[in-house]
User: Which sequence fits this backbone?
């Protein structure tokens, strides 16, 4: 008999506290974004390269080599990420006809060899909204 009374009191307590808990719950409608505009940002990775040879006034073959790179900043405007036609970089010279003759490297203009456009997609401002039923406080179980 005592066990049955204890169980009845325990269930009554749980039921009463659940009812008061449910009474504290609030259900509201909230606007939440479900779609956003897409913003594209661009950047170019520019590669500069030269490899050529020529014959100097002494009849010696001179090999010319140089490379450089440049990355533009991110921009939403494609006009802002163009690669310059040339870049300053170190150019080395080798005397193919007389390898024992050394030529000091120098800095000069190296022509654009390739450009790789990088595209990044980002989420912009919301464009569509939906109404969602929200119960507060979190975890609250309404009646």
Assistant:
């Amino acid at each position: 008999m005592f066990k049955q009374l204890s169980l009845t009191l325990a269930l009554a307590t749980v039921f009463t506290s659940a009812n008061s808990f449910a009474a504290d719950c609030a259900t509201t409608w909230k606007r939440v974004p479900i779609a956003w505009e897409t913003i594209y940002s661009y950047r170019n990775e520019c590669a500069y390269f030269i490899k050529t040879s020529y014959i100097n006034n002494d009849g010696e073959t001179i090999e010319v080599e140089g490379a450089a790179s440049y990355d533009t900043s991110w921009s939403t405007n494609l006009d802002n990420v163009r690669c310059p036609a040339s870049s300053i970089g170190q150019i080395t010279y080798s005397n193919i006809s007389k390898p024992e003759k050394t030529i000091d490297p120098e800095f000069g203009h190296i022509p654009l060899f390739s450009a790789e456009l990088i595209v990044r997609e980002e989420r912009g401002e919301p464009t569509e909204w939906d109404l969602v039923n929200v119960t507060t406080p979190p975890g609250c179980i309404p009646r």
About this structure: The CA atoms of residues 27 and 57 lie 90 Å apart.
